[in-house]
Amino acid sequence: MERLGDIAVIEVSNPPVNAVSQPVRAGLFETVAQAAADHQVKAIVICCAGRTFIAGADIREFGKPMLPPSLPEVINRIEATAKPVVIALHGTALGGGLELALGGHYRVALASARFGLPEVTLGLLPGAGGTQRLPRLVPFSGAVDLITSGRQIGAAQALDLGLIDKIAEGDDARSAGLDYAKVLIEESRAPRPTSALPCNPPEPGALDAARTRLAKSARGQIAPQKALDALQGACDLPFAEGLTQERALFLDLMNSDQRGAMIHAFFAERQVGKLDEIKGIAPRVIQSIGVVGGGTMGAGIATSALLSGLSVTLAERDSEAAERAYAAVTGLLKNAVKRSKLSEAKYVQIKAECFKTTKYYADLAPCDLVVEAVFESLDVKKEVFGKLDAVCKPGAILATNTSYLDVNAIAAMTERPRDVIGLHFFSPAHVMKLLEVVVADNTAPEVTATGFALAKTLGKVAVRSGVCDGFIGNRILSQYRKALDGAVIAGASPYDVDRALVAFGLAMGPYAVSDLAGLDIGWATRKRLAPTRDPCEAYAEFADRLCEMGRFGRKTGRGYYLYAEGRPTPDPEVDAIIAAERTAKGVKTRPLSAQEIVDRYMAAMVNEAARVVEDGIARRPLDVDVTLLNGYGFPRWRGGPMYYADRVGLDKILRDITTLAAEDDFLWQPAPLLQRLVADGKTFSSLNT
Ligand code: 3H9
Questions:
Q1: Which CATH number fits the domain that encloses residue 202?
Q2: Overall number of domains in the chain
Q3: Could you write out the DSSP letters of every residue in 438-490?
Q4: Are residues 530 and 631 in the same domain?
Q5: Cys staple from 194: which of 133, 357, 634, 688, with CB 3.0 to 4.6 Å?
Q6: Which member of 11, 79, 99, 608 is catalytic?
Q7: Which atom of ligand 1 is nearest to the CA of 96?
Q8: What is the mean pLDDT of residues 250-271?
Q9: What ipTM was estimated for this complex?
């Protein structure tokens, strides 16, 4: 604490994000009491050193015994202070940090500050008074939105809502806090405890409507519903009782599996970029990107880059294709304007200054990095890379967006294999968070580091993958798809499978996803791999039959499902095709329970993931978790497949695999790594170093 005249300034300093760890709580508890007792102090300012105001409770302390004082105790003490307490905010005031701010009497923020209660994204609810104080300051619907979505808002919106009192000019929150405190002293303003305010009333039926909405949008998650319970308490109970109820609900969630899973996901996403091979290596500077191919993937990649402030030149084979690509990209940008992700002025500027299409490869010459997103054929890609190598400037990185093909073979077509890398985006590329950074044999570490830096610029999560057919994600996908096709041959329908996995937490079932992506994509891959397919593999043919009938999914109105009026409905014709295959193969079918389907899915996924880790394609189990969470719709509240496997027990997964081998001993060969871990009594997490 520092005293400047009649103002006490308490500055929290706990890099990197000023998390309220136990020492910070203890320090605040003590210094607030000192300032309150100091007769010369007329007002108190709480601010933070470094890049941000408090970004929340210290997540690393969760799951360990909680040491006093608790954050609610600290905040209650701040609020009970008989002198005005000003909270000066900058950076990101999140979770317990924002709750602490709500406990202050006046809030001033820099214009760049952001605010949020992201606890639900960690399987929690605000547990330091956030659910009780926020609806006393902002409209009830605003509190429900912020608390149940976990989203962040900017200073202007926070001011509109009544969350803060003032936006200060400049870039010094501490000075802004001091100036505000001086005014309060001059005007003899009294403390203004939030808890003394009445709770803003909800619109009639608002809580029930929110429950119904969240039951769909946050299906399977406990925290958002519990947060609504706490908010209901804010309406119905006196403040102190509401606070007690909130604490009880928070502690329940703290003990839940979902909290463990989501915090694993949080740290895994930060760990995934920590790789010895790029430690301390400066990435190349990327300002302009070339994209070859303006189809769905290429247009999405271009949009993602433009939205992140990069310049893009997109090359297509002729003028008509280039025009179509231009319209596709500007259409996606226009949608971003509609969804308030981009301002109209910025849109106009991007169109005028940052984006062009061309039919000449030579126009890609000045680009710092070029991503190829053309047809998925090795011959086509090799040709493109030969041309790119000839025109691109020295030091430009040449990246392929292939989902399966051999990046080494593609790199070999150039004189600069050190500058060649795989950047595997997921569709739609301007939305999906995952980027697999595929490191080929000769890729320079600096180029790998640039792949990770680019992902950060694009707001994506990058995972390092080695080269193999399908890399981390699609290689695992292809195994669990075979296992699910096996479940269908054994007796489940594709609809049973989709239902079971949606109930497990996937947003969509795998067969519905195939229909959305187009069944012809998987068909092309199967045909490509057919010559190398092992004759012992129990190959399910029904997907090929559907494709032969022109049933390519949604785009043709028929796939696994029928899409009359756009809504998917099960199709008896598909059941008949599957039944015919079972009969031809002499399979004696039986019904499969939802649990059996989930167990097969998980066993296949985890088994292949163990091979992917053992082969060094994924560096660690956590890289697999981050891949499946961000690119394949694996439910975040289950932490990822490897985390899930550790929780249910690797011995159980191995037992399932051994049992399933009786049905198909080609597919269900246990991965040696899984066997070793079970024999040694270890978990996947023991390999997450
Ligand atoms: C809560 O507050 C509960 C309360 O309601 C009730 C309590 C009773 N704790 O993300 P970055 C680390 S729940 C510990 O790369 P950025 C992070 O691991 C909490 N560590 O930076 C990383 O470490 P390392 C609610 C944390 O600039 C480093 O800081 N709050 C915490 O891209 C840099 O992080 C949240 O959920 C933490 N709370 O983004 C906010 N936060 O260098 C979570 C970060 O060793 N945090 N670290 O890898 C964030 O959203 C982002 O970190 C933030 C900065 C936006 C702040």
A1: 3.90.226.10
A2: 3
A3: E--TT--HHHHHHHHHHHHHTT-EEEEE-SSTTHHHHHHHHHHHHHHHHHHHH
A4: yes
A5: 133
A6: 99
A7: 2
A8: 97
A9: 0.99
